[in-house]
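Kindly go through the following sequence and its backbone structure tokens. Advise at your convenience whether the structure tokens fit the sequence:

___
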Amino acid sequence: MSDLNQPLTFPCGKTMPNRFMLAPMTNTQSNEDGTLSNAEYNWLTMRSKGGFGLTMTCASHVQANGKGFPGQLGIFDDVHIEGHKKLAQGIKTYGSLAVVQLHHAGMRSPEDLIEGSPVSASAIEKYNTKALSLKEVEQLRDDFIAAALRAKISGYDGVEVHGAHGYIISQFLSSEINKRTDSYGGTLENRARLLFEIVKGIRQTCGSDFLLGVRLSPERFGMQLTEIKTICKQLANDELIDFLDISLWDTFKMPEEEAHQSKTLLKHFTTLDLKQVKLTVAGKITTAKEVQTVLSKGVDFVTIGRAAILHYDFPKQVMAHSDFKPIATPVSKSYLNDQGLSDPFIEYMKRWPDFVED
């Protein structure tokens, strides 16, 4: 398994020491004003200590009204910088790259967590969602860029723009959700305009040596595989980002769209010409064998979620044991405490059947 321990250098010049990235996971552990909590700090720095070559925060919202869950880590105000400086330094202490995921929940913002109605590309009655005005779209773009600058000031190596899972950027990308008639709606070029403007703005503001990634998901929430692949190719051709983080839900599945079932969902992305852009994928990669299988198919580094919850040192375990498998679930609350999860995070994990013992 020695190849898993090989460094990977991104186009910007930053190098991760191995091929493991901690997935940006909802954990409900920070303070309600978006400032860093000791629990969040402990959870993330334990993962960098456990061998993750790139440690990514949970989704961190760039506007107050983009909050997606209780206890979310914020980066929409300068008041958050002090905590982020501590977190970035703590992660980097163990040789891991420190990266913030920039996020806005859009129509998925719970109304009891924000002031006013949730916002999106278009008004959606089901979610009581208000359509953003053109001026508000431009402000949203600028706030993503401002949040990236806060991340750089805080000492992070880079940021990832969250364009997946039905949050606000993917709401713009979706032809099902986005019914705008201005320059941010209609054609794929228009629907993707916000994403590309954010990426370009971050690169111009934060410089060529700042690590910049984009997370996309090719299915659900109106995403179309062909359109997401087109966006990936354009992002690679523009030479502005360092990595693509493709969330597949299940790395080994076939596409849901029948027209594209001639090959696995993973192969649709490993066969793209991404130029110098590095590729990572997430989705049910839990054992050493699965890690090796995914990397052997042309993925540059793996993104680990569930297995990282169960083992803070998952990378070290996999690199040391070619037959490593995570502990069987359900697991006890005390076990998860030992793995660096606070009580609110453990309570959140009870949403998943048979993960936490009763």
Remarks:
- Residues 80 and 220 are 32 Å apart (CA to CA).
- Residues 2-326 form a domain with the TIM Barrel fold (CATH 3.20.20.70).
